[in-house]
Amino acid sequence: MRFVQDVPEAVSFKDPEPALSMAMRQSFKVFRTPKIAPRYLIASKPLDRRLADNLVSSQDSQITWRWLMAKVLGVFLFPVFISVSLVTAGLAASVEEFYKGKVIQFVVGGSAGGGYDTYTRLIARHFAQYVPGKPSTVVQNMPGAAMLISANYIFNSAARDGTYIGHWSGPLILQHMMGNPAVKFDGRKFGWIGMPTADSLVCITTERSGIKTAEDWRKAKTRVKLGAIGPGTSGTDDTKLFAAATGFPMQLIEGYKGTADIRAAAEQGEVDGTCAFGWQSAKVTWAGALKARQVHVVLQTMLEPHPELKGVPLAIDYAKTEEGKKLLRIASELYGKQRLYSLPPQVPEERVRVLQKAFVDTLKDPQFKAEAEKAKLEIDPIDGPGVEKMVNGLYEIEPAVVNRVKQLLAAK
Length: 412
Fold this sequence. Notes:
By secondary structure, this protein is an alpha/beta fold. Helices cover 47% and strands 15% of the residues. The strands form 2 sheets. Strands 1-8-7-9-6-10 form a 6-stranded mixed β-sheet. The chain has a 6-stranded mixed β-sheet with strand order 3-2-4-11-5-12, sandwiched between helices.
């Protein structure tokens, strides 16, 4: 089912581990007062002789006190160091034992053949070698409801043990912030693995549409039909904010399961184009049509131009008001960082850290990088803690701004 929308014109911080506690108790049992030369403890000589002895032996005294402190610290701290090492080694062994023979499932919110799918399948091929225990990996596509089905599944239904990793559209977080009742997750409670790259979002039109440039579009007498997945994705939300800021004539055709389906619809003439693609995936999945000039990149909706798209204008250059420019700045921040990999809530912390590191190590792997370069997939990653900071920052946007965006995205 497709949903058609006419987009309106422009608008104004544990107790010590048992091994550690035992080590500390044993250290108290074996402690003995060190044997120190009597002259430093008992006044058995006349005062003047003692003073002379002490003056002559001042260097000895310093050495003796250093020896004493070293003994004290060694007796107390050595068992602690050993215990901490044992605990750390135990955690590593525990993680390795857990993952041995397991399968890590990557759940992709987009359809097979799309950008989310393409990135995930490449990552999954190299990921397991960096996880202790060397589990296997599989990729499962779970498209639907603008990737909300997969996001809700990861948050509510997937096992909370570190064997499920979701890849879905980050802007769905905004839908939660706006109170969308269909969103059954809280973005602040996911475990975040990382992001392979930011997106440089673009608008692409077909040759048959007659729209070959941004100026053609701006002057069009009829609305340009754009394919989109649905609310919470760049193809819908970013496009609506772009329309409100610029007044470009457009009509959204929503309900596609992923960018692969939108691409097919455009090639069949069902839609005139889309603003649902990042250039990072479009240049790979739509390479043939771009080379044959069957489709055209007419606009960049981010604030900074991509170096490979010289001459393609920025949407913000067409913003009619200061409010419009502010909307496009918000859109750039929200929708340019959307390829997020997440864990369900309450996954054991040591497994979260292991998977975060595995993600970073995968993206540094020479063979992975060679395959990504061959496939023309851009890699400019943000690690798990970085994504967590970014997501928490979104929840700090002023309510008034969120409400204004909500009004615009609710417009039919």
